[in-house]
Design a protein that fits this description.
Length: 198
């Protein structure tokens, strides 16, 4: 292999030397006709070699434009993903749907010294990929107790909503109030969407 390369190198060196000798004796005149004949072939070869590169360049420009659009919206996408993660985290697990509202109602009422007069059955409704779970309760307490209790539930870290509230004076005690409340939470139907509120 090395011998073949040496022969090619020697042949090219000899051709170069011949061209230099002819140019030194006669000038550029003997090269005009071969150059005029070879120029179109060189242009065709040049176009054949570099035109695929221009097509690739066009493809790269299109790809670059797509990546610029993606990068422009990347921050927005990441923001939506983090919000989605936060929302999932604020949903109770589907396995807890039978106990969660009862736990919230009883634990928060104990914090404020309230006792239940009645707790209704839990109701469930499907809402697309989510389940809306509601439960009613009746309590009696002072205005301060009931207000603090409602505020604690409304400011809960999980998706919790007071969907119905009826208040009235307690005829037996003028300083207390009777409250009928319906509390609702949203749970994912699919366990893969579940978060795990604490």
């Amino acid at each position: 292999m090395k011998a073949i390369l040496n022969k090619i190198k020697d042949a090219l060196t000899e051709m170069r030397d011949d061209v230099l000798v002819i140019y030194a004796e006669k000038g550029a005149l003997p090269f005009k006709k071969p150059l005029l004949m070879a120029l179109p072939a060189l242009l065709i070869a040049y176009a054949g070699v570099y035109s695929p590169s221009s097509a690739r360049l066009g493809e790269r420009r299109i790809e670059s434009a797509k990546l610029k659009v993606i990068s422009a919206h990347y921050a927005e996408y990441m923001n939506v993903q983090s919000q989605r993660t936060e929302l999932r985290r604020r949903m109770p697990l589907p396995k807890d749907k039978d106990e969660w509202l009862g736990y919230i109602l009883t634990s928060t009422s104990k914090n404020h010294g309230l006792t239940f007069e009645a707790l209704s059955q839990q109701e469930e409704r499907n809402a697309g990929p989510l389940i809306l779970v509601s439960r009613g309760a009746s309590v009696t307490g002072t205005y301060e107790q009931v207000g603090a209790w409602l505020a604690e539930m409304e400011n809960s870290k999980i998706f919790l909503k007071i969907t119905s509230l009826q208040m009235g004076k307690n005829p037996a005690t003028p300083t207390s109030v009777q409250v009928k409340i319906v509390l609702s939470i949203v749970l994912p139907r699919d366990a893969s969407l579940a978060g795990g509120a604490v």
